[in-house]
Design goal:
The chain has five helices and no strands. The N and C termini lie far apart (88 Å). The longest helix is centred in the middle third of the chain and has 30 residues, at 51-80. 60% of the residues lie in helices and 0% in strands. The protein has two domains: 1-41, no CATH class; 51-158, 3 helical TM bundles of succinate and fumarate reductases (Up-down Bundle). Membrane-anchoring subunit of succinate dehydrogenase (SDH). It is a multi-pass membrane protein.
């Protein structure tokens, strides 16, 4: 049994959606190929970006990096450096004297805050029904994220053990 596709006819969009085919009695005529849509002056230009795909990708990548950073932080702080009882002001001062630990903690701060804010943005988009509510919630969440990231960055880089 071979199928011959040479007799496929292109029909207008209005004919294709009738569900009755071309009316020739051939069941294969029910599968009609519509012509491609043509952009007209009334057709809006593409305004969407790949923001949602990039946000999705950021969540996956930042999650993997955060797991490594946080597990490394916990292993070093709790097992190798003597546990919670050794953590005090002098310990933090000595640790943040090294650019390695400043960078480690800064990367944890930035990734954790941006990862969490992106997750909250998704939750707000899913559950806030009114556009105005969604706008205000995302504005407040964005302001809190920026404030926390800036304040945390300032503390990491301006920490003075001689206070």
């Amino acid at each position: 049994m071979s199928t011959d596709t040479t007799d496929v006819e292109l029909v207008s969009s209005s004919q294709a959606h009738t569900g009755k085919g071309l009316g020739t009695g051939n069941p294969a005529d029910a599968f009609v190929i519509e012509p491609p849509r043509v952009r007209t002056k009334k057709t809006p230009r593409r305004t969407r970006t790949n923001f949602e795909m990039l946000a999705w990708l950021f969540m996956r990548l930042s999650g993997v990096v955060l797991v490594v950073l946080i597990l490394g932080h916990l292993i070093i702080m709790l097992l190798l450096d003597g546990g919670v009882s050794k953590i005090n002001f002098a310990f933090v001062a000595g640790r943040w004297a090294s650019p390695l630990w400043q960078g480690w903690d800064l990367l944890m701060l930035w990734l954790a805050m941006l990862h969490g804010a992106n997750g909250m943005r998704t939750v707000i988009n899913d559950y806030a029904e009114k556009d105005s509510t969604r706008l205000w919630l995302k504005t407040l969440m964005g302001a809190a994220t920026v404030f926390t990231v800036l304040l945390g960055t300032l503390v990491i880089f301006t920490f003075d053990p001689n206070i």
